[in-house]
Write a structure and sequence with these properties.
Number of domains: 3
CATH class of the largest domain: Alpha Beta
Largest sheet: 8 strands, mixed
Distance between the termini: 66 Å
CATH superfamily of the largest domain: Transposase Inhibitor Protein From Tn5, Chain A, domain 1
Shape: globular
């Protein structure tokens, strides 16, 4: 048996016998500290989770570090071990090398010794638990398989990438546009919203598979610098084509379902900026430097119809008329003029130009828009307020009353119907106004219809919080608009996924819940000559939901 084999023979033993003396690993650790011998760092190796070294030069006794090791620090002067004894009490042992600097440089100290973290838990079997990152080709996001299939069926990333002009020198291109877009969007879908995440995910076997790369034998996917170059290469024409493509997908869905009425909810949101980003300005309402995206949603389906990034100093209704004009024209061309279109928005969009656009004979749009209160409106509703307050004092419970009247502001070209809600409770008085050109509903019903636009707030919440659409950190304004559209595509993937869940309790799940239930799945990926095997976790609790989505994808 060689010297090294003699050393290894002691590894499986907790208590060693040397002559008439019994020694423990802790004793041997103390002896090493006492002798403070010159140890060559190459004598320390890692075998099956155990640290060992050659025998002591004086006593011939092996110096064995067993499963008590919790951490190790290596520098040019020696080692510092953080240990736990058998009673889980912490111990710190230092080993200093003689002539350490020369030996450390020669042997590459920091590269040779690795830390092993082992936690001993009091299970009934009295066995140790060891965790290591050596499981092989594993993924924590096997649900990418569903989204990859959904993407191919609906040709989402393919259509998106076709709108971008290729300006790269093909001699140096390693990743085509389609793979780049697919990788970036699927990362956002899984909750990895930053470009930097590409550096850590580019080797993920599941992501490589859904991006048409073999998980084991093909090169890794693109890195963060590649995506940064892509974002900054996009032109205005590319962005116009992408916006038209997003709108075109929406109107084609209208042709399939043929709704009797379309309700478009308008809203704006804030994206807080940092440093010197282009068109970042201070906004008084948000009290911060922002960019100011405009979003249009279909109230019934949650589809994102339009996403336009605007400078931070623009108001909520800025550019809304030309944008809405393009949207309405596209809808009319797709489904005809018989379909009713209604516009709903909060008071930020209460502008005469929008009213007139909706009322003109060419468009014939219905609208229900919030109206900011002013002293004149408050005087009109004073009698209603007094009666509501009296009823509250009499009954001692919350009171609501509704009324309507014709109102014409100084900037308006005509009088318009205004709905008012007055509410009095223990917290005080609440007055809300709505302006509309609809005359088919009573005051209360129309106001309740207006408050249903709160669902759009949920759409924006999911878009911002679950898909991080406000992560617009590029310096160039056009690059940030491109990022917004990438996140819009990720949002649309979840909308399409919900389509496959109609008639099930999962249909109304939020994006974050869907992500957790169908995407965050552990799996082992195995590549053979003719097939790629995805071995999903047998203990995955949402197997019925996964099977349902997969079966409906395959049957569509």
């Amino acid at each position: 048996m060689t010297d090294r084999e003699d050393d290894i023979a002691f590894i499986s033993t907790t208590i060693n016998h040397v002559g008439n003396r019994t020694t423990t690993p802790l004793d041997r650790m103390k002896r090493l500290a006492e002798h403070n011998k010159e140890w060559d760092i190459n004598d320390f190796e890692l075998l099956s989770g155990w640290h060992y070294c050659k025998t002591d030069k004086d006593t011939g006794m092996p110096m064995i570090f067993t499963d008590f090791i919790t951490g190790v620090t290596v520098n040019k002067k020696g080692f510092r071990f953080e240990l736990l004894d058998k009673n889980m009490n912490p111990i710190i042992m230092e080993c200093i090398f003689d002539n350490a600097v020369g030996k450390a440089k020669k042997s590459g100290a920091t590269a040779m010794l690795k830390a092993v973290c082992q936690n001993t838990l009091p299970f009934h079997s009295h066995r140790n638990i060891t965790a290591r990152f050596d499981g092989g080709s594993l993924t924590s996001d096997a649900g990418w398989l569903l989204f990859g299939s959904l993407d191919r069926q609906h040709r989402l990333c393919e259509g998106f990438s076709s709108c971008i002009s290729e300006s790269r020198d093909q001699r140096y291109v390693r990743h085509d546009l389609l793979k780049l877009i697919r990788q970036r969007v699927l990362q956002i879908v899984a909750g990895y919203e930053d470009c930097n995440d590409a550096d850590t995910l580019r080797s993920d076997p599941m992501l490589k598979t859904v991006c048409d790369q073999l998980p084991e034998s093909d090169p890794d996917l693109a890195t963060q610098p590649t995506f940064s170059r892509l974002e900054n290469s996009v032109t205005k024409k590319d962005l116009m084509r992408l916006s038209r493509w997003l709108l075109g997908r929406y109107v084609r869905s209208l042709q399939k379902r043929r709704p009797a009425k379309i309700i478009l909810d308008l809203d704006s949101t804030d994206d807080h900026t940092h440093s010197q980003q282009e068109f970042s300005f201070y906004h008084g309402y948000y009290r911060s430097h922002i960019l100011h995206p405009l979003l249009i949603f279909d109230a019934d389906t949650g589809d994102l119809v339009c996403a336009v990034l605007r400078p931070g100093n623009k108001g909520a209704a800025s550019h809304i008329v030309p944008i809405l004009k393009r949207v309405v024209e596209a809808i009319r061309q797709a489904v005809g003029t018989d379909v009713e279109i209604e516009i709903r928005a909060d008071s930020g969009f209460a502008t005469p130009r929008l009213y007139e656009f909706c009322e003109c004979e060419e468009n014939q749009l219905q609208y229900v828009i919030g109206l900011s209160r002013n002293p004149r409106l408050q005087r009109v509703v004073e009698p209603l307020l007094d009666s509501t307050r009296e009823r509250f004092l009499e009954l001692e419970e919350k009171q609501r009353q509704f009324d309507e009247f014709l109102y014409r502001a100084n900037s308006w070209d005509r009088s318009r119907r205004v709905i008012v809600k007055v509410e009095v409770d223990q917290r005080g008085i609440n007055r809300r106004f709505v302006v509309t050109n609809r005359d088919d509903l009573c005051s209360q019903s129309l106001y309740d219809h207006y408050t249903n636009r709160g669902q759009t707030e949920n759409f924006i919440k999911a878009f911002k919080n679950h898909l991080s659409m406000d992560r617009l950190s590029c310096h160039r304004f056009l690059a940030n608009q491109f990022r917004l559209l990438l996140h819009a595509l990720a949002y649309q993937m979840f909308v399409r996924l919900r389509d496959y869940l109609h008639g099930t309790p999962w249909h109304k799940l939020e994006i974050e819940t869907l992500r957790r239930r169908v995407l965050k799945i552990g799996a082992r990926i195995r590549q053979t000559t003719r097939r790629i095997w995805v071995h999903l976790s047998s203990a995955f609790p949402e197997q019925p939901l996964f099977h349902l989505v997969l079966s409906r994808l395959n049957s569509s």
